[in-house]
Amino acid sequence: MSAQSDLDRTRGLLSDVGFEFAVHVLPELVERGVREKVSLSGFLDLVLSTEREAREERRVKTSLKLSGLSAAKTLESFDFTFARGVDRRKIELLATCEFARRRENVLLLGPPGVGKTHLALGLGVKAVTNGFSVASLTADELLDQLRRDDAAGLRRMHRRRYCTAAVLVIDELGFQALDRRDAHLLFKVLSSRYERASTIITSNKSIREWPEMIAGDEMLATVILDRLLHHCHVTQIDGRSFRLREIQTKAGEA
After folding, report:
1. pTM attached to this predicted model
2. Neighbours of 130 (CB within 10 A)
3. How many CB atoms lie within 10 A of CB 108?
């Protein structure tokens, strides 16, 4: 049999056993193996690792698309030199995703523009790359979906992604006060996730301001905070606004 026939046969076998990516680059892998004088076991490792890496790349890409995360908002692209109010060591510890493995929560607090959203989404991206399912919504988007589900009499909220995802990112909680109905809907979500999954929340409100934010109901706020803070990493972020810096930079360039 010719070398091409052998190659075609190997491709067919790889395809039969479910290889989707290594099949298409097999000639390049063979060439590399010959050039680098790779052993038989080494060549097998090369084929398997190529398939595994391609599958992982596809998994991450698909998971990011389903999650609602922005692939551009990574921790690697966060400017820690400007954000002097951020505890970098704490963020790097969270980036290991141990919090997700332990089903713990993350609360990022601080004024607008200091990078809370970027950090939350960056942690979400890290969670995806570490194999966790992630759902990312703004507080307004989540509440809108909860209202619609509640109005439709949906009895299976626990099957929604905001309940089933291993990590739920809720961004911008606190820009609008919650009425009693919205507060109860939020409580349902946090209760369903309590000690079962992780929730990352960004808020411009300090913890002492939550009763005012949550329908002015101190008791309800206490119950929500009890679920949220029991297993939680709280990070207070201060400093200058990234958005104001961008505006000033553009004004200077003009």
Report:
1. 0.82
2. 17
3. 25
Is the pLDDT assigned to residue 252 strictly greater than 80? no
**pLDDT, tens digit, for every residue of 185-236?**
999 999 999 999 999 999 999 999 999 999 888 899 999 999 999 999 999 9
Helix spans in 176-217 (H) = 180-193, 210-213
Superfamily of structural domain 75-248 = P-loop containing nucleotide triphosphate hydrolases (3.40.50.300)
- Contact present, 30 and 1 (Cβ < 8 Å): no
Q: How far apart are CA 136 and CA 126, in angstroms?
A: 13
pLDDT 10s digits, 68-90: 898 778 999 998 888 777 889 99
CA 226 to each of CA 21, 103, 202: distance values in angstroms, whole numbers, following the listed order: 48, 15, 17
Residue by residue, DSSP assigns 137-149 as EEHHHHHHHHHHH
Q: How many CB atoms lie within 10 A of CB 23?
A: 16
For 1, the 3-state DSSP assignment is: coil
What span, in angstroms and rounded, lies between the C-alpha atoms of 159 and 161? 7
Indicate the DSSP class of residue 22: T
Q: What is the pLDDT of residues 237-250, one digit of tens each?
A: 886 665 554 544 44
> Given its phi and psi angles, is residue 174 left (phi above 0), alpha (psi -120 to 50 degrees) or beta?
left
